[in-house]
Specification:
two-stranded antiparallel ribbon; alpha/beta; 7 helices; 8 strands; six-stranded mixed β-sheet
Length: 206
């Protein structure tokens, strides 16, 4: 089974937040060879119908996308990276896409300050969440009903997952590969990426 991963892109997205998980999912499909477990669709926020589907990430890197939120296909996994998220967290098209995707997706996840976007869409609940260490207090202040935890790389509840900052998105993505494809594919992906991954947790979601 090939799962479709919808990866949100927007101006001032953190490069590794977006490109790290993209690399994990794409390498996982490469190492799985004849049975690719993932297909990544890049979804560009804040682009009018007559604008190119290109965003400018933090540091100036330009990233091309496949579609706008309102045109995105149904996705099995939805991932929202972090960065400067004020505009994207207030974008009605993004929020509507996330709310609509939540019903059919196996997992909705965030990296870093992407948690603020999920919170703005009303997708976070009483279960613990996390974000970049620098933004923990801001998340608590903006959404006082949330249980915000620190000192973890990611928190996975099965249908909802959040990770700490930037490089922690690699750990979350590898964890999702292990859970949705297989631990063997995740281990082979980390090895191919030459990434020092500790492997899936022994007791399931963490």
């Amino acid at each position: 089974m090939t799962r479709r991963v919808g990866l949100l892109l927007f101006d001032e997205v953190e490069v590794l937040d977006a490109c790290g998980p993209f690399e994990v999912f794409s390498v996982a499909s490469r190492v799985a060879a004849d049975d690719p477990p993932f297909e990544v669709v890049l979804v560009a926020a804040g682009r009018a119908p007559d604008e190119p589907l290109v965003v400018r990430a933090r540091g100036g890197l330009r990233l091309g996308a496949d579609c706008r939120p309102q045109d995105a296909p149904a996705c099995d996994v939805v991932l929202v990276p972090g960065g400067v998220v004020d505009a994207v967290a207030a974008d009605p098209a993004v929020l509507a896409w996330l709310r609509g995707a939540r019903a059919g997706a196996e997992v909705v996840a965030s990296v870093c300050t992407g948690a603020f976007v999920l919170a703005a869409a009303g997708l976070l609940d009483e279960r613990p969440v996390t974000t970049h260490w620098e933004d923990l207090d801001d998340l608590r202040a903006a959404w006082p009903d949330l249980t915000v935890v620190e000192g973890v790389r990611f928190v996975d509840h099965g249908d909802l997952a959040t990770s700490a900052g930037i490089s922690a998105g690699l750990d979350l993505a590898l964890h999702l590969v292990a859970r949705l494809a297989s631990p063997e594919v995740a281990t082979a992906t980390a090895r191919q990426m030459d990434y020092a991954w500790s492997g899936p947790p022994p007791d399931g979601p963490s």
